[in-house]
């Protein structure tokens, strides 16, 4: 297990700013967090090396790309042995429509975040891939209506 990293207020500010705009220069970042550029760069490198910052991505406007359906699927498995859980987790990696996946507690075993071009494509995935996958017992879906919040995963000082 990775060692927990001690973060101070400046580290949290750096993380918040980079989540807001991961392309800003180190000089701009240092101004926003209130320290000079060299220590700011050292802090960012330390956060990257510690694995706190895993990488940088472009945030895409999915409707502009023709991806109009965002949905969540709650999956219950027949058997929850370690091997079965790992097998289903691995299977999710092969489905392009699944953008994020979590193993969860409660009535379901997995929650999948799916993005599809239209309802027909999503339905085909659910019927032809998901419900027919080995060991899948239940599939519950929730289509989103409108996204109302889209923030980075960490808030300042959590």
Structural features, described:
The protein is 35% helix and 19% strand. The two termini are 20 Å apart. The protein folds into 2 domains: 9-49, Arc Repressor Mutant, subunit A (Orthogonal Bundle), CATH 1.10.10.10; 62-143, Alpha-Beta Plaits, CATH 3.30.70.920. The chain has a 4-stranded antiparallel sheet with strand order 2-3-1-4. By secondary structure, the protein is α+β, with helices and mostly antiparallel strands.
Question: What keywords describe this structure?
Answer:
about 160 residues, alpha+beta, Arc Repressor Mutant, subunit A, 2 domains, 4-stranded antiparallel β-sheet
Element layout with pairings:
Blueprint: H1 9-20, H2 26-33, H3 37-49, E1 69-77, H4 82-92, E2 98-103, E3 110-116, H5 119-130, E4 136-143
Antiparallel strand pairs: 1-3, 1-4, 2-3
Helix pairs in contact: 1-2, 2-3
Summarize the structure.
The protein has 158 residues and is an alpha+beta fold. It has helices at residues 9-20, 26-33, 37-49, 82-92, 119-130; strands at 69-77, 98-103, 110-116, 136-143.
Number of helices: 5
CATH topology of the largest domain: Alpha-Beta Plaits
Q: What is the second-level CATH architecture of the largest domain?
A: 2-Layer Sandwich
Strand order of the largest sheet: 2-3-1-4
Major sheet: 4 strands, antiparallel
Give the DSSP E fraction (strand runs of 2 or more residues): 15-25%
Helix/strand/pairing class, anyone? Answer: alpha+beta
Please tell me how large the radius of gyration is: 20 Å
Spans where pLDDT lies below 50 across 5 or more residues: none
Coarse morphology: elongated
Could you give me the name of the CATH homologous superfamily of the largest domain? Lrp/AsnC effector binding domain/regulation of amino acid metabolism (RAM) domain
Overall mean pLDDT stands at 93
- Count of DSSP strands: 4
SSE order, as H and E?
HHHEHEEHE
């Amino acid at each position: 297990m990775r060692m927990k990293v001690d973060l101070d207020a400046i580290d949290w500010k750096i993380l918040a700013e980079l989540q807001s705009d991961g392309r800003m220069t180190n000089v701009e970042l240092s101004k926003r967090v209130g320290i000079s550029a060299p220590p700011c760069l050292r802090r960012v490198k330390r956060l990257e090396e510690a694995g706190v910052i895993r990488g940088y991505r472009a945030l895409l406007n999915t409707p502009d790309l023709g991806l109009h359906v965002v949905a969540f699927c709650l999956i219950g498995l027949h058997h929850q042995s370690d091997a079965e859980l790992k097998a289903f987790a691995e299977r999710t990696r092969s489905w392009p429509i699944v953008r994020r996946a979590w193993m969860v507690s409660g009535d379901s075993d997995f929650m999948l975040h799916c993005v599809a071009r239209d309802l027909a494509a999503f339905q085909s995935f659910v019927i032809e891939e998901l419900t027919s996958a080995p060991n899948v017992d239940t599939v519950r879906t929730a289509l989103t209506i409108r996204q109302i919040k889209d923030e980075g995963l960490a808030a300042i000082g959590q």
